[in-house]
Amino acid sequence: MKKEIRDALRRDKTIDISTTGAQSGQTRRIEIWFHNVDDEIYISGMPGRRDWLANLEAYPEFTFHLKGSLQADLAATAQPITDLAERRGIMGRFEGERDLEAWVADSPLVRVRFDGKVE
User: In sequence order, what are the residues at sequence separation of 6 or more whose Cβ sits closer than 8 angstroms to the Cβ of residue 59?
Assistant: First the structure.
C-alpha cells in the first residue's frame, strides 16, 4: 500500500462506501466514518439496524472511497465482527465513545480488508 494511502487512513475519518444492495442488487453509496485502530480499519455506526451492514453481509465486497486529504477508490472486503469481547476491545479504542456497552450490544462493526495491491 502506498504511503499516501496509509497516511490518509491514519488521519482522515470520513469516507464514502459503495455497497451492493442486499435486496435490490443495485450499487448504493453513502457517507460514513471509519476508525483506524493500530492500522486496522473498521467501519461502525450508531446503535440500530443499518442498511449498509445488511448490504455488506449479503455482498462483502465493496469500494472504500477516500475523499479527504487524498482521493482514492479502494477495493475492499468487509468482515462483520460479532464476538462481544472482540467488539468491546475494538470499540473501546474509538475516540469519543460514551456508552461503550450500548455500542458493543447494538452498533454495526466491520473490519475492512483491502483487496490486492492498493495503488
Answer: 19, 20, 22
